[in-house]
Amino acid sequence: MAKLTKTQQVINKLLELGYTETQTGGRKHRCFTHPKMSEKVFVGNAGAVRIGRCITQSFSHTERFHAKYAIK
C-alpha cells in the first residue's frame, strides 16, 4: 500500500479532530473549520498548515502541527 502524502495525513488528522472542509475561492489551499473555533485552518498542496481568519491574515503552524501529530 502506498504511503499517504503529507497533505492527506494532515487532512485525515483534521477530520479526526472534528474539523469540516469548507469552500474556498482558490485552488492553492483547502480550508477547514471547527464549530468551537473562530479561526480557520488552511492546508496547502505540500502539507503546509496555516491558521487564521483568512489566508492573507494566517500564520504558519506547519512545524508545530507536523511535530505534534507525528506527520512525516
Features:
72 residues; alpha+beta; 5-stranded antiparallel sheet; 2 helices; 5 strands; globular
Description:
It is a single chain. This protein is α+β, with helices and mostly antiparallel strands and 72 residues long. It has one domain. The chain is 25% helix and 26% strand. The protein has a 5-stranded antiparallel sheet with strand order 1-2-3-4-5. The longest helix has 11 residues, at 6-16. The mean pLDDT is 94.
How would you summarize this macromolecular structure in one to three sentences?
It contains two helices and five strands, in the order αβββββα. By secondary structure, the chain is α+β, with helices and mostly antiparallel strands.
Write the layout of secondary structure elements.
Blueprint: H1 6-16, E1 20-22, E2 29-33, E3 40-44, E4 49-52, E5 59-60, H2 62-68
Antiparallel strand pairs: 1-2, 2-3, 3-4, 4-5
